[in-house]
Amino acid sequence: VRFKSNVSGHVFNVDLPKGVYKITVTTGDDQSTTIRAEGLSQLFFLTGNNAVDSFTIPVTDGQLNIYAGSGVGEKFSISAIEIEKAGEGTVGKPTIWLAGDETVSKRYNIPEDDGSRRGWGEYLSAYVDMNTYDIRHISAGGITAKAVKDSFLPTAEFYGKKGDILILAVGLNDYAKQNKENPDSLDPTEYKQNMTEIIRRAKAKGMTVYLVKQSGELHDASRYPVLTEKWFSAAIDEIAVAEKVAVIDLFRPWLEFCMEQTVRVADKYYC
């Protein structure tokens, strides 16, 4: 089905009894497609032809409303929709929401053995009891804290509930943008404001929030003196203290791995 994002009511509707459903979508011949359902973005930037991904949501009004789109006036398509009932009632399992950039997000239409970099969030399901939790990606390469707040968080905020977890791994692009525009005066103020708003909105829904200190660039492992932090690490610590949330430090174990295994080995994890 071909959709045009600026056409009112251009939506595919499926009548469904009230319940929780797993929706698996295969896109059509589009380079990048965001899947929307029930008026909210559900899958972000599925890349390449026939990309496949799933999301689980409650359907409360007797009908699933779904369409494809990423920009006003552009055409996007869905090749297949698979609908599987995942639970009774209108409340799903506790959900782990992954809000992050390219270090977290999924890659589509890339063979496992092609050597390309992949986000760690793609593999989290192997380490989580999926009978207990759902995992939802609200991540995409290149995004900043502001983009999470404005465009990605509303989905988690709408469905979020007590028992959910928000893992917030963003900051690399905020830092890089500032460093490019004004390398002599890096100011984390805007980053801290956006992160604080995200945390407070998530906590208002009963969600537990974790901040992530992200891994560094490959050449960081060869720098001397040895780095102790990267990106807006100090700002993350300040936010965590102020908002009473925990921090997951991926930078330190990443650096130790690179130094112990040698940069040559670590290079296999980078493009």
Structure, explained:
- With 271 residues, the protein is α/β, with parallel strands linked by helices.
- The chain is 25% helix and 30% strand.
- The chain has 6 helices and 13 strands.
- The chain has a 5-stranded parallel β-sheet with strand order 10-9-11-12-13. Strands 1-8-3-6 form a 4-stranded antiparallel β-sheet, with no helix packed on it. Strands 2-7-4-5 form a 4-stranded antiparallel β-sheet.
- α3 runs parallel beside α4.
- The longest helix is centred in the C-terminal third of the chain and has 16 residues.
- It starts with a strand and ends in a 5-residue tail after the last helix.
Helices and strands in order:
Layout (H helix, E strand, L loop, with lengths): L1 E3 L7 E4 L3 E9 L4 E6 L2 E8 L4 E8 L3 E6 L6 E13 L7 E6 L33 E4 L7 H15 L5 E5 L2 H10 L7 H16 L3 E6 L19 H11 L2 E4 L1 H11 L1 H4 L5
Parallel strand pairs: 9-10, 9-11, 11-12, 12-13
Antiparallel strand pairs: 1-8, 2-7, 3-6, 3-8, 4-5, 4-7
Helix pairs in contact: 1-3, 3-4
